[in-house]
């Protein structure tokens, strides 16, 4: 099995779209009057979910009419949020085919199929022309990317001069060796964590400038702890990302928290720019 297939199988188990619709029904959400806010507990599939997307968006110079690329777009939640908030267009690409199918069906369901288009592909080899996008972002994707240099070079190529690239991820902590399972890997296979300082160096070598790094570890930790506290009280929401993480979800959340506390991972948000 190729690395790409293994990573795709890890994320997209079974019929993802049907599972989302079935769980929406259980949660009493009517698909015929669905809003992107109702989808947010599931389709912002990264640490801290929707609030983390909002904070990232607050930090980005997005203008009305921009065209953005979401590399590793997952179910398309962040893409739909940005398209709606900034009245811009977003192209998404993701290596997991069942996520792309679900992303496009969800966009159609909320009437946003014109503004957000997702397609199947690998961030290490983007299917776009040079200098296409006003900005790009990649949330919680790089943990699975074997060739970061190729990934950054492709992002650089498809961005216009002056465009931003934003990324969020669990970087490798100074202690290293995260406990598994974690969201991106059950047992360490398909995991390619890098120290944030090495990521910054790779971005710089690619040509990106004005690289700004924010440590998001404490916020993530509080987010995981809040989710664990709700689960302990039996109050975890019916419609949440556990439906994507599967039966290992409780252990995954515990490990994600513990890895940060033990400095095995170091979550970061990085914003940088292609020179003018
Ligand atoms: C934690 S999910 C994040 C999804 C989305 N960015 C979000 O924040 O909602 C990680 C995503 O990265 C995708 N991914 C992993 N490696 C990739 C690659 N080389 N190219 C494109 N997508 C990739 C996975 O398929 C998965 O959808």
Order of helices and strands: HHHHEHEHEEHEHEHHHE
Helix content bin: 40-55%
pLDDT < 50 stretches: none
Assembly annotation: single chain
CATH topology: Rossmann fold
Structural class: alpha/beta
**Average pLDDT number:** 97
Gyration radius from CA atoms, angstroms = 18 Å
**Strand elements, count:** 7
Could you say what the CATH architecture is? 3-Layer(aba) Sandwich
Note the overall shape: globular
Strand order of the largest sheet: 3-2-1-4-5-7-6
CATH superfamily: Vaccinia Virus protein VP39
The number of distinct helices, counting runs of at least 4 residues, comes to: 11
How is this structure best described in words?
- There is one protein chain.
- The protein is an alpha/beta fold.
- The chain is built from eleven helices and seven strands.
- Strands 3-2-1-4-5-7-6 form a seven-stranded mixed β-sheet, with helices on both faces.
- Strand 1, helix 5 and strand 2 form a beta-alpha-beta unit.
- The structure holds S-adenosylmethionine (SAM).
- S-adenosylmethionine binds next to helix 1, helix 5 and strand 2.
